[in-house]
Amino acid sequence: MNIQSAPEGLTDGFHLVVDALKLNGIDTIYGLVGIPITDLARVAQASGIRFIGFRHETSAGNAAAAAGFLTRKPGICLTVSAPGFLNGLVALANATTNCFPMIQISGSSERALVDLQRGAYEELDQLSAARPFAKAAYRISRAEDIGLGVARAIRAAVSGRPGGVYLDIPGAVLAQALDATAAASTLWRVVDPAPRQLPAPEAVERALDLLATARRPLIVLGKGAAYAQADTVIRRFVETTRIPFLPMSMAKGLVPDTHPQSVAAARSLALSRADVVMLIGARLNWLLGNGESPPWSADVKFVQVDVQTCEFDSNRPIAAPLAGDIGSVLSVLLDRIITQPLAVPTAWTDELAERKARNDTAMRERLAEDAHPMRFYSALRVIREVLAQHPEVYVVNEGANALDIARNVIDMQMPRHRLDSGTWGVMGIGMGYAIAAAIETGQPVIAIEGDSAFGFSGMEFETICRYRLPITVVVLNNGGVYRGDEVAASGTDPAPTVLSAHAHHEKIAEAFGGKGYHVITPVQLESALVDALASGTPAIIDCVLDPAAGVESGHLTALNPKSAAAGG
Ligand code: ADP
């Protein structure tokens, strides 16, 4: 059978999967071909779906997850069986943790052999392996169930709290032939995949009553708020209530970081002094001190807006849970607040403004330092200034110091323009996220990468060149994990944290037809970045930093057992 056109009157599993995806508005698949799914990619491409082929499945999965975050449609990752499936699973688990909608479709080996562990080619019980790491996991065992399986996967990925879904399709099902007319009737388009969820009136009253008692209110915007695509209503809510707000890293830009109500520059004070905190699409996980005191005050009360009701009370009591989708909940609250305005005491806003001014001055001083060789702040000052002129550029960011410092230094002006290591603090998302941002939005992307972080997905620079994507990778190269100057305690091997201090990452770009820049001063960095952005071609800027720049574990020193044992 010619795979791209089944014989007259017949179809097969390959075509049905593609038809079901297309019917549901899927226009891009991120993946890596091999047995048994190569023809699935061919059929998809022939049908008009864009297939983006990667060098490693984790990156394909990360791209799919980022596409899901940016578009609210499930990103699709296609992998081969066992090893390819397992590579993709890291990204699937990460998507689930971050609440990004994604579907990993993996081909699998012959069930009769796998289930009796007879030693099939790439033998693995993939469905069982995927289950703990996915929001849902399904297997399609008959071609006539493909429409059902795809519909179920889409619904599971995007409804309620979004997450990663695994869809297992054995090779035999893909090859199964069916009568085309009968098969077409087994497919359907999911109606309203993520229905709105309105809050209960009594929950709204409870939240408004609590907010009205606040003397030091604070709004925390999380990446769930960015995902919700309720940008106008969120901004109106913040501005109408006049409550100071703090964006979590991927919520930066929902309301511009330069907005006078942002208290990002007075974060510690805001957390420790706030008496009523409204969490909008943000969880009280480790990134917010698990709700404990410190960093929060002992008697702080929380309002929490979330689609996932079991999220409430997951760390500490939530005095006013608001179950619903962010757009609907904030619309209802706004209607009420317009007729019954809240007042934010000026003592509180003055206190925050004073601390902000002090911290802003300290930051300006740090950014002005003219260190030779460059350190993180000197390099990031340049990137910050270039990005201020280009608010449309998407920023991808990972690393330890490269992540922690860039998050504070780089202001965002537009929603969903920052993608980073997220809830797990995972390394390796860089190139996958950058590729998805470029593919899904058509806009330029700057990936700000620690040299160690870049290594996890660096080979995808070939993918970036192959698809000619407008991605500039800045490798903040201090020659090590955390830093590059550790001396080994004994022997001749390098210390565990040390990487190649004299690496020229820009040569990777040159190897694949991209532009390479090697910079050692802020002036060179600025010129390279401006040039790379203007050219719109794939580029790597190897930005040489002092190997002594950076601290172990970045801002997470307290989580490093070494410092915990030392009492801090
Ligand atoms: P951050 O890391 O930025 O603090 P989290 O990932 O911890 O953000 O929290 C995101 C939260 O947003 C999750 O609890 C998720 O259930 C919730 N969420 C995602 N989408 C929506 C939505 N449309 N409406 C309401 N809550 C949402």
TrEMBL record:
Entry GO MF terms:
magnesium ion binding; oxalyl-CoA decarboxylase activity; thiamine pyrophosphate binding
CDD domains, alphabetized:
TPP_BZL_OCoD_HPCL (cd02004), TPP_PYR_POX_like (cd07035)
* Span of domain Thiamine pyrophosphate enzyme TPP-binding: 407-543
Q: Which GO terms describe its biological process?
A: fatty acid alpha-oxidation; oxalate catabolic process
User: Which intervals hold domain Thiamine pyrophosphate enzyme N-terminal TPP-binding?
Assistant: 13-128
Q: Which cofactor does it need?
A: thiamine diphosphate
Give one Pfam family.
TPP_enzyme_C
What's in the keyword line of the UniProt record? Lyase, Magnesium, Metal-binding, Thiamine pyrophosphate
What is the protein's name according to its record?
Oxalyl-CoA decarboxylase
Provide the species name: Mycobacterium botniense
Write the lineage as a comma-separated list.
Answer: Bacteria, Bacillati, Actinomycetota, Actinomycetes, Mycobacteriales
The gene behind this protein is oxcA
